[in-house]
Amino acid sequence: MNIHEYQAKQVLKGFGAPVAAGVAIMKANEAEKAAKSLPGPLYVVKSQIHAGGRGKGRFKELGADAKGGVRLAKSVDDVVANVKEMLGNTLVTKQTGPDGKQVNRLYIEDGADIDRELYLSILVDRTVGRIAFVVSTEGGMDIEAVAEETPEKIVTVAIDPEAGVTAADVAKLNDALKLSGDAAKDGAGLFPILYKAFTEKDMSLLEVNPLIVMENGRLRVLDAKVSFDNNALFRHPDIMELRDTTEEDEKEIEASKYDLAYVALDGNIGCMVNGAGLAMATMDIIKLYGAEPANFLDVGGGASKEKVTAAFKIITADPNVKGILVNIFGGIMRCDVIAEGVVAAVKEVGLKVPLVVRLEGTNVELGKKIINESGLNVIAADDLDDAAKKIVAAVKD
Predict the structure, then answer these.
(1) pTM
(2) DSSP for residue 353
(3) Which of 214, 239, 264 is the last residue of a domain?
(4) Which of 89, 91, 148, 279 is the 20 to 30 Å CA partner of 347?
(5) Is 80 exceeded by the pLDDT of residue 254?
(6) Count of domains observed in the chain
(7) Domain stop point among 239, 257, 283
(8) How confident is the model at residue 149 (pLDDT cuts 50, 70, 90)?
(9) Of 118, 119, 120, 122, nearest in space to 196 by CA
């Protein structure tokens, strides 16, 4: 689960991280009061959407010459003018896609005198099986570009879970970020704080870009992006309250109600599969034969008829879907349950696009019998390769 920047900063502030004063608003008439509550005279007006690249983004409604989604303001009147221009409009960034996202919240923050911009993130490094810091002196930039062009400027420091962030770890991080004096002292306090926040709140990603060294030599968290492990949210009702469903795909919200692993994509072939590995293989083979998957959808190993029906409805609700591939290898999952769910869903919502079904495993003959006797216009497939070829051909016809 993702949260907004201002929410992430409040979470980090609760652990003691240094962040600037700021006020989140949802209405333009709140801007003047919010700005006047801050020290000034420099302010930053930030679009709050679940996507990166806001500063370089552009508002659809304002033309190519308009300023981006993060703006400096040098007076309260300037803040108000920017808020009126930004709030309610659609911001397009590299991460939103061409459709962009409507800006329904803004964060008005006290400005900072910046000396240097640094990059810091914490994530689970699966190559070593530990939580790790990833840092760079090249903050404020696309870290992907830094990794590609100057990988030597990125340093990874894995943390021993039993020891936590040690003095040796702090020294490595300070050295990698070229921190000295007060900034190094701040780093010695900040790095353990961020690690504690990451572990105690079950985060999957904590990214600070930029982490700044101010002109007075102190560190500040200038931006923050935080994602949480969905499987651990039951332990954090306070974090659940921060969820903004307006930033999520409606189909993904519906899928979460049925405990379905669903991610909307940009293609036109809907996929319903059991098992994450098989789902990814199914998506890969669709691309191999020249088409694009419309979603990742794993119904899981113990799906009920109702769960499968819900999954099928979610797929067919996507207007981009021009064909559907059901690929089930029944181990724990029974093929007859999948078949019953598909039949029930089709009878309820109808079938307006080609449907290819590949079943194998537990109760496969019963599953095939249910589908064959349903009267549905289903294209049967012998294996995954055959299924992919057939659904791609059906969509292209």
Answers:
(1) 0.80
(2) S
(3) 239
(4) 279
(5) yes
(6) 3
(7) 239
(8) confident
(9) 122
